[in-house]
Specification:
about 400 residues, about 80% helix, mainly alpha
C-alpha cells in the first residue's frame, strides 16, 4: 500500500510541479518572452483549459486498467513538458501548457480511485490525501527549486525538471502500483449518470468557485510578495517553501478530518477559512510576518479541501462513473485556476494593487463554502440518517 501510494504521489508531484511552477517563474517567463506579467497569466489559463479538455481521455479509456491508464497519462505529461522546455516563443509555450494540462484531471481521477482501492478499510480519505501529498510537496520543494533554477539557469530548465519527474513517475507506477481491475463498464453515457443528480453539481460548482477565489490572488503571488508583502525577489523561493508547507499541513489535516467527520462539512469549513484569509490579504497589512502567515493559511486551505472533495466525487460516481467523477474535481479546480487568473488580471488592469486580487476572490470562496454546507446538510446528513435507520 505504501509503495503504491508513493508511486501515485510521484505522478501527482510531476503534475503539481508543472501546474504551479508557472506562478513562481511568471516574471522570468514574461521577461524572457517579452510579454507583460498580466498577459503571462494566459500560460496558467491554457494549462487549466487543457485539464478540462483532457477529460475525453477517461471517456475513451474507461475499459483500460487503472495502472495502464496512469502510465499513459504520465507519458502525455512528459511530452507536454518537453515541448515547454524547448519553447522559443509565447505561442509555442501556450500550446505546450495546453498539452501538459491534458493528463492532469484524468490522472487525479484515476489515482484517486486507485488509492481508494489499495487503502485499508476506514482509511480511504488518508490514502487519497497521501496521493495528493505529492502535489503539495511539489509546491513545498519543487516549485521553489524550479523558481531558483529559472533565476540561475533559465525558465526552460524548470520544465525540463518536470519532464524528468514524469519519467520517474512512469517507472515507479509500473513497478509499485498493483494491477487493478477496470471500473464496471457502464457504457459511454452511463459514465455521466452521476451528473443527473444535484449533489455532485453542488460539489463541482463549489470547487470551481472556491479555486477561482484563491487563484484571483495566487496566480500573482510572486509580484504580491515583492510589491505588497515587502519581500525581496531573492526571498520568493523561501516564501514558496512556506506556502508549500501550508499545503502539506492542509492536505493531511483535511484527509484525516474527512475520515472523522463528513467530507462535505470539512470542505465547507476549508472554503470559509479561505475566504477569511483572502479578506485579510485584501486589507494590505504591511507586516511581512502577517503576510507570510496569511499566505501559509490560504495555501493550506487550498489543499485542505482537496482530499474530501476528491472522495465525495468518486463516491458519487460509483457504478461506472468513478474515474470521470474524480476527474471532475480537477477539471473544476483548474477551471477555477483559469477563471481566477483572468479575474485577477482584470483587477490588475484597472491599476489596482496586487492585494486587491484577494478582495476579488472573497465572494467566490464564500459561495463555495455555502454550496458545500448545503451539500453536507441536504445529502450527507440524509445519508447518515438512512444508515442509522438501517442499523436499527
Amino acid at each position: 500500500m505504501k509503495r503504491g501510494l508513493a508511486a501515485l504521489a510521484t505522478g501527482a508531484f510531476a503534475l503539481g510541479f508543472a501546474e504551479f511552477v508557472m506562478m513562481g517563474i511568471l516574471p522570468v517567463v514574461a521577461s524572457g518572452l517579452n510579454v507583460t506579467e498580466a498577459w503571462a497569466g494566459n500560460f496558467i489559463s491554457l494549462y487549466a483549459i487543457g485539464v478540462c479538455a483532457g477529460a475525453v481521455i477517461l471517456v475513451l479509456g474507461r475499459r483500460v486498467p487503472p495502472r495502464t491508464l496512469l502510465v499513459a497519462l504520465m507519458v502525455l505529461c512528459l511530452v507536454g513538458n518537453v515541448l515547454a522546455a524547448i519553447s522559443g516563443d509565447a505561442n509555442m509555450l501556450l500550446v505546450a501548457r495546453f498539452i501538459s494540462g491534458m493528463p492532469h484531471g484524468a490522472y487525479f481521477g484515476t489515482a484517486t480511485l486507485a488509492a481508494k482501492m489499495i487503502a485499508e478499510p476506514g482509511r480511504e480519505g488518508r490514502a487519497v490525501a497521501g496521493m495528493v501529498l505529492g502535489q503539495t510537496l511539489a509546491n513545498t520543494l519543487g516549485v521553489p527549486a524550479g523558481t531558483l533554477l529559472a533565476s540561475l539557469v533559465s525558465w526552460h530548465a524548470a520544465f525540463a525538471f518536470a519532464a524528468i519527474c514524469a519519467i520517474a513517475a512512469i517507472a515507479l507506477i509500473m513497478r509499485w502500483v498493483p494491477q487493478l481491475d477496470p471500473i464496471p463498464d457502464a457504457g459511454l453515457l452511463g459514465q455521466f449518470r452521476f451528473l443527473s443528480k444535484p449533489g455532485p453539481w453542488l460539489v463541482i460548482i463549489a470547487v470551481l468557485l472556491g479555486n477561482t477565489g484563491i487563484f484571483c490572488w495566487w496566480s500573482y503571488v510572486s509580484p504580491w510578495l515583492t510589491s505588497v508583502a515587502g519581500f525581496s525577489a531573492v526571498a520568493i523561493p523561501a516564501m514558496l517553501v512556506l506556502a508549500g508547507a501550508g499545503m502539506v499541513v492542509g492536505v493531511q489535516a483535511g484527509g484525516r478530518l474527512g475520515d472523522v467527520f463528513t467530507p462535505g462539512s470539512v470542505a465547507a469549513a476549508g472554503q470559509l477559512a479561505a475566504a477569511v484569509a483572502l479578506g485579510f490579504i485584501a486589507l494590505g497589512i504591511g507586516s511581512p510576518v502577517m503576510s507570510a502567515a496569511l499566505m501559509f493559511l490560504c495555501a493550506g486551505c487550498m489543499f485542505f479541501v482537496s482530499g474530501p472533495q476528491q472522495v465525495l466525487m468518486v463516491e458519487a460516481g460509483e457504478g461506472g462513473g468513478e474515474l470521470l467523477a474524480g476527474a471532475c474535481v480537477q477539471i473544476a479546480f483548474n477551471g477555477g485556476n483559469a477563471l481566477g487568473a483572468q479575474v485577477g488580471q482584470a483587477v490588475l488592469n484597472t491599476g489596482a494593487a496586487y492585494g486587491m486580487t484577494g478582495l476579488a476572490g472573497v465572494p467566490f470562496s464564500l459561495v463555495a463554502a455555502a454550496l458545500l454546507a448545503l451539500f453536507a446538510w441536504k445529502f450527507e446528513r440524509a445519508q447518515h440518517e438512512r444508515a442509522v435507520g438501517r442499523a436499527h
